[in-house]
Design a protein that fits this description.
By secondary structure, the protein is mainly beta. The chain has five helices and 39 strands.
Length: 705
């Protein structure tokens, strides 16, 4: 942003004042793409490139891991809300100027869910590229392999963007006879799948531009996926084949009218899923959603502008399921209306706060009306937050919010399907069995109400390495919560007998894992992290800096994790082992570096031990005790420059040379291990039972044309 300013310089004199001197055309330069609030953490071009990511979506995912986010962030582009941020996720990382994590109160400032963090991506004003990538991977133990290819064309010119892409992949199946039998039943052992055969092909296009004073966006995606696997059911081997064809189209406009900033979008989906084997059925689905959101400042207060936002979302769906016994047709309509008022209560700046630093306090109110399947209701919500910068490199903030959220489209309308077999421990039979999970959406889901409290602090950067640290305490309480079925135990089976599927002999053969409403989910989490950017090569003696290494350590400490299934069932303490084996501690160490044309990315993940109780409220000899698990991954990359030394690469963050990557996942070939409460070996936790892949090698070739 550029502004012209006439600067007046006045000189004092003992007697008369001389005529002021006016300097014309002095430019004050603002930061392009700046958000409404200063960022809490930022990645620049060098740090983005060090990640070795293939697209912007992967950069944001890695950024979220560094922040310890429990849910995906809200993404804004160049400091502004957009109709559909997905249009920018497939662009190459070097199309980014920077990525910013805004403080927690930004969720309310941008009219979204106050409990979610906001990430601002700032794009290059001009960018153009054609990229292609091919990847091949295979476990070192053999048995299965994967091949994937990707091609894309990307272009940015100010607010006009264009991207066209196509992807295809194929993964062969992994059969049980390609791994040692260990502790599993060997009858018909070689016939069933440990991992399914999968083929995916897709194409996408995304365009943004301008129509007069209004910004426009359009995107379309077509995808076909085929899966095949065999499973054992009641002593029989059944082959299941699935095919899913999906087409999505989305469009929208955004601009200003009558003092309001307005965004409107329309999103349509058509899908057909066919399945044969375990169940012969065909499901055809149509989903139409329309969104309208607007915001404007109402007035200016000493602490800042009063901001009002209004949002409306309509979702209509129709699903037709054709199977042998009966045909079913379901339709649903949901209308979600929300309004939020953000009121800045207090704000100070360093020059008038007596050394207290910058302080701002915000208060918001929300009115939400939900209408679904003929039932209507109104729900209020509040949010309050503060941001305080007592020192230039110390930031403290807090956010409290209440929100009522409708189920997502996927949670309600995904077609029913059977997933590939997986091994679970059945407390009832005290055996490891292979079950076939039932997946998909649940059209009967109700809206959940969530209360969130977050306190966070960050400091830095310090010193030449730019050391930064952050800590975040988050408490979440969700009533009528949307979640998954707790881990299988006798008490869970008694609470949900219709979701645990057994044959005539009582053998466990399947679990219905479609989402459900639970009375309450409660969690308290303390996340912390430290990062540094270490320069390589130096700039001494006239030598230029050749690269850098980013080191980031993140720790998650779960203070509380509990589930209340129903009011007549005691609360499940999942950290103690009731209804889920949830580890209390998790540690992540990342290293992302680049030196000249070489790059290295390393990841170490550690999760602590956990327990799954057979009986609620007490430890027992038949419990499952899961050991801690450490996995290590390493990726090394290099760029083979074109033979022509005269090629000009000045100003480019990526050359047109061939990029070669070699990656090993699970370098130490670690596998989940467990024992029973009395120390005996736990069925279902032999070396290949829970993770039959183990160490996997991958080679990737990519090039810019």
């Amino acid at each position: 942003m550029l502004a012209h300013l006439a600067l007046i310089v006045v000189q004092e004199a003992p007697s008369a004042l001389p005529s002021p001197t006016q300097l014309e055309e002095v430019e004050v330069v603002g930061r392009r793409g700046a958000a409404r609030v200063a960022p809490e953490l930022e990645l620049g071009p060098e740090e983005i490139d060090n990640l070795g990511a293939y697209d912007i979506g992967e950069v944001i995912a890695r950024f979220g891991e560094r922040l310890g986010l429990q849910q995906p962030p809200v993404v804004i582009v160049n400091g502004r809300q957009v109709v559909d941020a997905r249009n920018f996720m497939g662009f190459p990382p070097d199309a980014l100027v920077r990525v910013e994590a805004l403080p927690p109160q930004a969720g309310a400032l941008y009219g979204g869910d106050p409990s979610r963090r906001v990430v601002n991506i700032v794009l290059q004003p001009a960018f153009r590229s054609r990229d292609a990538q091919a990847k091949m991977s295979r476990p070192t133990a053999g048995g299965t392999s994967s091949v994937a290819v990707d091609g894309r064309q990307s272009q940015i010119k100010d607010s006009d963007t264009f991207q066209l892409g196509a992807q295809a992949s194929r993964t062969t199946s992994l059969r049980a006879d390609e791994r040692p039998a260990d502790d599993q039943d060997s009858s018909g052992f070689g016939a069933y799948s440990l991992r399914p055969e999968t083929q995916v092909a897709s194409a996408n296009i995304a365009i943004t531009g301008a129509l007069g004073d209004w910004a426009t966006s359009f995107s379309a995606t077509a995808q076909q996926q085929r899966d095949a696997f065999t499973s054992r059911t009641s002593g029989q081997v059944v082959e299941t084949r699935q095919r899913a064809d999906t087409v999505t189209v989305a469009g929208g406009v955004s601009g200003r009218t009558l003092g309001w900033s307005v965004r409107a979008g329309l999103d349509g989906l058509i899908a057909e899923t066919r399945q044969s084997g375990l169940a012969a059925l065909v499901t055809r689905s149509q989903v139409l959603s329309a969104t309208l959101s607007a915001d404007r400042p109402l007035m200016d207060l000493p602490a800042g502008p009063v901001l009002v936002t209004a949002d409306a979302r309509y979702v209509g769906s129709r699903s037709e399921t054709l199977d042998a016994p009966t045909d079913q047709t379901q339709s649903s309509q949901t209308l979600d209306l929300r309004s939020n008022l953000n009121l800045p209560i207090f704000s100070t700046s360093p020059d008038r706060s007596g050394g207290w630093g910058d302080l701002s306090v915000n208060l918001g109110g929300r009115l939400a009306a939900l209408a679904a399947l003929g039932d209507t209701g109104a729900n209020g919500g509040l949010n309050a937050g503060f941001a305080w910068t007592p020192l230039s490199k110390l930031r403290l903030s807090g956010q409290w919010s209440q929100a009522t959220d409708a189920p997502t489209r996927e949670q309600r309308f995904d077609p029913p399907r059977y997933g590939p077999p997986r091994t679970v421990y059945d407390f009832r039979s005290q055996q490891a069995v292979d079950i076939t999970p039932l997946l998909g959406g649940n059209p009967d889901l109700k809206a959940q109400k969530t209360e969130t409290l977050s306190l966070s602090g960050s400091a830095g950067p310090f010193g030449p390495w730019g050391v930064q640290g952050n800590v975040d305490l988050q408490s979440v309480r969700s009533s009528n919560a949307i979640g998954a079925l707790p881990a299988l135990t006798p008490a869970v089976e008694a609470a949900f007998p219709d979701r645990i599927i057994r044959d005539a002999e009582g053998r466990l053969i399947g679990i219905d894992q479609r989402p459900i409403n639970l009375a309450q989910i409660a969690s308290d989490t303390l996340s912390s992290g430290v990062s540094a950017n270490i320069p390589l090569g130096g700039e001494t003696g006239g030598s230029a800096r050749r690269g850098s290494v980013q080191v980031a350590i993140a720790h998650i400490w779960r203070l509380d994790d509990g589930v209340t299934i129903r009011d007549d069932i005691p609360r499940l303490d999942q950290l103690a082992g009731d209804g889920g084996a949830v580890p209390r501690h998790q540690l992540t160490l990342r290293l992302d570096g680049r030196y000249a044309r070489w790059g290295v990315n390393a990841l170490l993940n550690w999760r602590g031990p956990s327990r799954l109780r057979r009986d609620f409220g007490r430890d027992g000899p038949e419990d499952l005790r899961l050991s801690d698990l450490t996995t290590v991954g390493v990726r090394i990359s290099t760029t083979i420059e074109p033979s022509s030394a005269a090629r000009d690469t000045a100003g480019r963050r990526r050359s047109e040379g061939l990029r070669l990557e070699f990656e090993i996942e699970n370098l130490l070939d670690a596998r989940p291990e467990a024992t029973l409460g009395d120390g005996r070996s736990a069925p279902g936790y032999a070396r290949d039972s829970q993770d039959p892949l183990g160490r996997t090698a991958r080679i990737s070739l990519s090039r810019r044309f």
